[in-house]
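User: Design a sequence. Structure:
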């Protein structure tokens, strides 16, 4: 692998600064409220530099979500290698989402307005987590012991997590709702679907 030239290194660093700034702003203010000028200011670059790295605002949004999703997927994969039980899978999922809770909350809040490619990627990632959860539940309690149909298992979990993310100001004002309410969410969800372990 050839060494990066100074110019290539600076270009990558600038792109990373822009992406980091975008993730921070999207997480704090939401996608619809953040302008590319805001991202440039936050990153300490010119407005034109944003478009030199991301051709459109939609491309910047897609890159920010993809960056967060990839980091989350990598963390989930790492955590799932260490987990066996459904309880472990659910706690791992919450811990990963809590890493960038504000951004995940805004992804949920504005998902229908995000670019189609971003929406498809989110479905793909959630499907991966769903398969791990179903496999662990079937090991823990057996499919016949579940109170809900298989397709409701992850949908119910996701709906619960999304509800808490969207209402985090009520459940944990100024704090991470996914960290603070993790035990409660996991325990009650498992009781709801049929696993009391």
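Assistant: Done.
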């Amino acid at each position: 692998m050839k060494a990066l030239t100074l110019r290539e290194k600076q270009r990558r660093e600038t792109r990373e600064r822009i992406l980091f700034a975008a993730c921070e702003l999207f997480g704090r203010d939401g996608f619809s409220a953040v302008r590319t000028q805001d991202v440039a200011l936050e990153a300490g670059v010119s407005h034109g530099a944003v478009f030199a790295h991301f051709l459109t605002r939609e491309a910047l949004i897609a890159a920010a979500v993809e960056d967060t999703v990839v980091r989350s997927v990598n963390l989930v994969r790492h955590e799932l290698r260490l987990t066996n039980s459904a309880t472990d899978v659910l706690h791992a999922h919450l811990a990963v989402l809590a890493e960038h809770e504000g951004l995940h909350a805004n992804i949920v809040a504005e998902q229908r307005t995000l670019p189609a490619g971003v929406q498809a990627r989110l479905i793909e990632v959630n499907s991966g987590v769903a398969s791990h959860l179903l496999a662990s539940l079937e090991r823990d309690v057996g499919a016949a012991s579940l109170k809900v149909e298989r397709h409701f298992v992850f949908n119910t979990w996701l709906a619960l997590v999304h509800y808490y993310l969207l209402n985090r100001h009520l459940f944990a004002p100024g704090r991470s709702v996914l960290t603070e309410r993790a035990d409660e969410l996991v325990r009650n969800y498992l009781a709801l679907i049929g696993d009391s372990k």
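The longest helix spans residues 57-81. The radius of gyration is 19 Å.
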